[in-house]
Structures are given as C-alpha cells and as structure tokens.
Amino acid sequence: MAALIPLLKAAISSSTWPLVWVTRSIDGTLGILRSCKKAKTVKRVIHTSAIVAAYPINEHGQLKEVLDESCWTPIDYIKGKDGFFGMYAVSKTLAEEAALRYGTEEGIEVVTVLVGMVGGPSLTSTIPHSIPVMLAPLTGSLPLVHVEDVCSAHMFLMEHPSAAGRYVCCSDPITVTDMLSFFRKRYPEIPLAFGNEEEEDKWKKVAVRISSKKLSDLVSYKYDMEEIISDSIECAKQMKVL
Length: 242
What we know:
Blueprint: H1 5-12, H2 19-39, E1 44-50, E2 66-67, H3 75-78, H4 83-106, E3 109-115, E4 117-119, H5 136-139, E5 141-146, H6 147-159, E6 165-169, E7 172-175, H7 176-186, H8 197-206, E8 209-210, H9 213-216, H10 225-238
Parallel strand pairs: 1-3, 2-8, 3-6, 4-5
Antiparallel strand pairs: 5-7
Helix pairs in contact: 2-4
C-alpha cells in the first residue's frame, strides 16, 4: 500500500474527490488477497477490473490506435476529469495495479479481467450501471460484452493452467455510430436520447480499435452485438425503464 500513496496523492490533487473513495477500492481488493494468502489453499485469484483501467492514451496525451492489455489509464491524465468517471477510473486502475503487485510479491497467481460494457439480462431489481460506456464519447468505441460471456471468461481463466496477467473481455467492439445505426433500424419506435449527425462525425474520426485477442484466442464468445443489445433492451422493458 505504501507504494501507492504517491499515486493516490496525484490522483486527488486539484480535485474534490474524498480520498476514501479510492482507498476503499484498494483496501477491499488487498483485504481479499490477504485472506487468500492466509488461507494457504488459494492458488489463483480472478480480479474483475474494468476497461476504464486501460484508457488508450500515450504519454503525449494522444489516443492510441488500439486498446489492449498493454494500456494503463494514466493517473495524471484522468485526474483532470471531473465527476464519477474520473474517480471510478482511478480507483479501478489503482486497485488492479495493487492486485497484480500483491500477487507478484506474495506468490499468489492474480489474473485480471478488464470487462467491457456488460449487457444482457440482470438478476438485480434495478438496471445495472455499465460505467465503461462513458469512454464512448472519448474513444468513439464501445466495448460490448454479454454478462454470460463475462461469467464464462472468469470460469475459464480460473481453470486454465497458463492464465496470467491481464485480459480484455470484450466480445464485440463496435463504434458509437454502428450502435446508433443498429438502434435506428431495429428499434425505430424508441427515440434516441442523443446521437445527432455532428456527434457521429466526431466519433468516426477518433474511433479506437479494441482488441480482446489475448482472451479470444483461448475462448469463444457466444453473443454478438445484436444479441447483447437486444437482451439489454428486453431487460430494460421488463424493468419498465423502456
């Protein structure tokens, strides 16, 4: 934890975020890992991270062409983002860094899954918030993945002998423009809350390719974009949101 203090200070400098918002995420993650080490029966831990921990930007503030496991959200950049997105991205990034570092130092296998925007049916009483959608206006891309594919990926990585490091979990990366076009054709009766031509032209210019090759080389995703969105809309209709 001591090694993370400088990063935490950088994350909240010139910001109104309470330090506790970020430290709770890290402390909770490390608390679970310490319990696993104490039990002496746990070989591997699958840590659910989020694709917001892999914001594809270089040291010059320019978007990279590809978002993959090599991308780490730069704290100095993201700390300038106000509101919940900035806090969430910082907490997920630092918690994942802490988990991987702890695993290396303490001899526990830690595998992290960077989950995209999860769609499909829900067992909760309210519509889940899929925070990575906030990346869309910035990258022009949407990292879609069905909730059942997320569960399958976790189980596979838990059992696969050579699983290690980070894995982007995104079955069907699409552009914002593609998604809006799908909505208009498949659900013309549902008015779009956003997505005018000016916005779409902007997103076309900055679209980043999202790569889940490391994981897709090992497992096959069951659901594509149409099924993910359709299942999500049906879920919203059942919960009277649409």
